[in-house]
Amino acid sequence: xxxxxxxxxxxxxxxxxxxxxxxxxxxxxxxxxxxxxxxxxxxxxxxxxxxxxxxxxxxxxxxxxxxxxxxxxxxxxxxxxxxxxxxxxxxxxxxxxxxxxxxxxxxxxxxxxxxxxxxxxxxxxxxxxxxxxxxxxxxxxxxxxxxxxxxxxxxxxxxxxxxxxxxxxxxxxxxxxxxxxxxxxxxxxxxxxxxxxxxxxxxxxxxxxxxxxxxxxxxxxxxxxxxxxxxxxxxxxxxxxxxxxxxxxxxxxxxxxxxxxxxxxxxxxxxxxxxxxxxxxxxxxxxxxxxxxxxxxxxxxxxxxxxxxxxxxxxxxxxxxxxxxxxxxxxxxxxxxxxxxxxxxxxxxxxxxxxxxxxxxxxxxxxxxxxxxxxxxxxxxxxxxxxxxxxxxxxxxxxxxxxxxxxxxxxxxxxxxxxxxxxxxxxxxxxxxxxxxxxxxxxxxxxxxxxxxxxxxxxxxxxxxxx
Length: 467
Prior knowledge:
Layout: H1 7-13, H2 16-20, E1 23-28, H3 33-42, H4 47-62, E2 80-85, H5 98-106, H6 111-116, E3 119-124, E4 127-133, H7 135-139, E5 143-146, H8 147-153, H9 155-161, H10 172-180, E6 185-189, E7 199-205, E8 211-212, E9 215-220, E10 225-234, E11 241-243, E12 246-251, E13 256-265, E14 269-272, E15 274-279, E16 284-293, E17 296-299, E18 302-305, E19 310-319, E20 324-333, E21 339-349, E22 354-363, E23 370-381, E24 385-394, E25 399-409, H11 412-420, H12 425-441, H13 446-462
Parallel strand pairs: 3-7, 6-9, 7-10, 8-11, 9-12, 10-13, 11-14, 12-15, 13-16, 14-17, 15-18, 16-19, 17-20, 18-20, 19-21, 20-22, 21-23, 22-24, 23-25
Antiparallel strand pairs: 1-2, 3-4, 5-6
Helix pairs in contact: 3-4, 4-10, 8-9, 11-12
């Protein structure tokens, strides 16, 4: 998966998007209950899902905008809340429209790679358009499909867990997602099944003023294991777009879940996302989040830990000129003998760039022997602004917590040393940049390291590098 900010203009010149991608149905704001019912009717959903949507809409109307973090300027009446493409849903690579194939190839996903991957779920705006599920998954009872299809085909399972970890009353954007969600991924790993290869998903926002509200639900049953990789990006448009997703992960007793996401949005996107995992006793969750691009990002993956759990959050955010990425993580301890770790790297490059690292750690009463370590390093390059905002609430005496924070700027002595060796200044800054994030990259699996380094190099190039 690579970014295509430069290639998008070529795509527009060839008129692929205007002549080939004609939405069959667009539902625009202002949003009301009738439009929500229309979305549910288009999807042929059961009544219980419509009830949840309407509950989300009522919460959305009541809840205020966030009273902290970046400034958000969204006209909800101008958002497109749903779009469905004209094409019938393809069943294979060969059935994909040619312009979509070109898009995925430019994203770095060749036909051969798609055939090799364990499973891929693509979402183009609001409707998943391509999937390939290896027969081996079905043999072991693994479900990997869009959430839309799961509502129809596995209603009892979805109904049991949908909205249980992220309530529609969590915040205004979680409420909006509950009301108008479309697409996203559903994964169920049965008891005692350990999936050795990662599952992949890719999301893309393509229309002007398009809101994307995918919903992901992952259930790892007892003693199961799964790795999930998600990538996101958006086209460049002059009119701001909204991405308000929700992710819920349920790690049952003894299970292990690793969740990796790269979000590489264009400069006009408001990326306002709610992601949370619930860890039952003896379970482990590792959450890795890479945040690039966007106009504004607000994202704080959170883990709720019960007894004897291990929860890890790794976060890397990079803000360029006129971008504000506000991210970090949250750990909530509700059980004994659990360990939590947050490691965050925030980088701001250029004029009016800002990176905020925000931490929330809650060690509740009766969480004896809990151990929490949080570390945040921030780097300012070329006048970028960085800040760290930790909050630690401890209501249990028998516990241990440690927080470290460091804000720094590019060291001129290092630049002088590197330039004295014949390296130009921009290349020197790039070397320092990759050295700064190297320790967090080392926590990643090999397949993710290579992908991330490639995306970061392209991302720096697209934004003019340093200076």
